[in-house]
Amino acid sequence: MSVRRIALAAAVAAAGLLAVLALVDAPGEVTGESPLLGAPAPAVVGTTIDDASFSLERRKGSWVVLNFFNSTCVPCIAEHPALVAFAAREAGLTDGAELYTVVNDDSDDAVREFFARRGGDWPKVRDDDGAIAVAFGVARVPETWVIDPAGFVRLRVLGELAPGALEARLDALRAAGSS
Amino acid sequence: MTSLAAPVRPSRRRAAWATLVLAAAALLAVGALRDGGPRTQQDRIEAITGRLACPTCAGESVRVSRAVAAESIRAEVARQVAAGTRADDEIVGYVAARFGAQVLLLPRASGFDALAWGLPVAVGVLALAGVAAAFVRWRRTPAGAADGAAPRPRTSPAGRVARASAVAALAVGAGWLVGRQSGERLPGQSLTGGIEDSTASLLARARASTFSDPASALELYAEVLALDPDQVEALTYRGWLVWLVARGAEDATLRDRAVAGVVADLERATAIDARYPDAHCFLGIVRFRHAGDAPGAKAALDRCAALDPPSEVRGFVDAIRAEVDAAAGG
């Protein structure tokens, strides 16, 4: 086999590998399965890091987005600008979704410092004993869940959110709900 | 020459074997059904977490793992054991319904998982049948067959098919039985894990049909209130739906009576949970629209706004807010 053919084969193999890696690493596109999808959301309760009470049942009537988060998790840091943009867009809508961060295995101070540095003024709910994570079956962060105004779980996204991906999915859910 | 030992009769030998098999079965049954005595909460927690796999580690149970997810599950199990409202199987089912069947250390008795129990047994039965068939064939082969003696009589093809079918049926049946008896069976679990049809489910269904099918929604809220008369959301939305229907009634007496029931529902909801915004919001709207009570409506709407109502309800309030403020003088 000539050197040229070997080089060509190596180039094709490398391109294929790169394509596979690019597909595997594409963030925000992994929607997860869960028995909870299409079922009523668990009636989780908690307090925010500002000591306000939180009850998911009481948020019926709004689209609710729960983002499970840890300030040291790299994909959480990477997706944060996408969440800030999402929150800004939703704040301008009459039926805008309510975004909540659910803090997973992290301290109030670390979370405060994270949001002070990177922006985002939505509520951050403590989950010190992991009850909210277990209720949703969250084993790793980040994970993002969408609950509709009737209280049904509609979407689970595993891993990092791509910019604009959450907006697109929520718009699709809204359109499906109103049709 | 005669043997010293008397020959054992076949019937006695069979009786001895039967006794041995029965004794073994009885001992196994006693061992399986033995009551280990009352268990402490810690015993229960350890037993339950020992049946669950850590969802983020390889080959570790929740009982031994130090991973965050495992610790969260352990805390949830401890909480549910302390609450005392769920049996062990129900707690395992709760976790499996959320994390999926992969957290079950024992494969389930249904669906694809049942193969883990049934397949080895079925293969074992087939192997035993094969060995038995080989022995039978060797015993039938005459000593001089290899030297040109008469060949042994052969079974007909239909007989062979019948025997093979019987063995296969026995193997599958044994596998199925073992799978059913040994696999993890959880209450209310389907293949993917089911969520119980509880008050939450009734409420969510009622909420979804509030505007599209108010009659069904009212029935569902009534079902919830039959289960839990103090359910604040059901009280509030039953009141709101009745108001939406009653406000258009031409018979003033009928309308007043219906609205009195609506106000009673909403006031009861605010008394049970003063922090539930929706009840305050609807109370304000009803007070203003039906009774023209602007100050009373304003007080309720102010309380509603302070409690941060969800966007759907906030939309109703925003539509009336300016009118109420003007009528209440500011």
List strands and helices in order, with pairings.
The complex is a heterodimer of chains A (179) and B (330).
Chain A: H1 3-25, E1 45-47, E2 53-55, E3 64-69, H2 74-91, E4 98-103, H3 108-118, E5 124-126, H4 131-136, E6 143-147, E7 153-158, H5 165-178
Parallel strand pairs in A: 3-4, 4-5
Antiparallel strand pairs in A: 1-2, 3-6, 6-7
Chain B: H1 10-33, H2 41-50, H3 68-83, H4 88-99, H5 114-140, H6 157-182, H7 199-208, H8 214-227, H9 232-246, H10 252-272, H11 277-291, H12 294-306, H13 311-327
Helix pairs in contact in B: 2-3, 2-4, 3-4, 5-6, 7-8, 8-9, 9-10, 9-11, 10-11, 11-12, 11-13, 12-13
Summed up:
With 179 residues, chain A is α/β, with parallel strands linked by helices. Chain A has five helices and seven strands, in the order H-E-E-E-H-E-H-E-H-E-E-H.
Task: Considering the chains and any ligands shown, give keywords for the structure.
heterodimer, A: 179 residues, alpha/beta, five-stranded mixed β-sheet, two-stranded antiparallel sheet, 5 helices, 40% helix, globular, B: 330 residues, mainly alpha, 67% helix, 0% strand
Overall description:
The complex is a heterodimer of chains A (179) and B (330). With 179 residues, chain A is of the alpha/beta class. In chain A, 40% of the residues lie in helices and 18% in strands. Chain A has helices at residues 3-25, 74-91, 108-118, 131-136, 165-178; strands at 45-47, 53-55, 64-69, 98-103, 124-126, 143-147, 153-158. Chain A is globular. Mean pLDDT of chain A is 89; it is low at 24-29. Chain B has 330 residues and is an all-alpha fold. In chain B, helix 2 (41-50) packs parallel to helix 4 and helix 7 (199-208) packs antiparallel against helix 8. The longest helix of chain B is centred in the middle third of the chain and has 27 residues, at 114-140. Chain B starts with 9 loop residues before the first helix and ends with a helix. Classes of the chains: A alpha/beta (179), B mainly alpha (330). The A-B interface holds A 33-36, 39-43, 53, 57-63, 94-96, 98, 104-105, 129-131, 133-140, 149-152 and B 55-56, 68-69, 71-73, 75-76, 79, 95, 97-100, 192-195, 200-201, 203-204, 207-208, 233, 275-278, 309-313, 315.
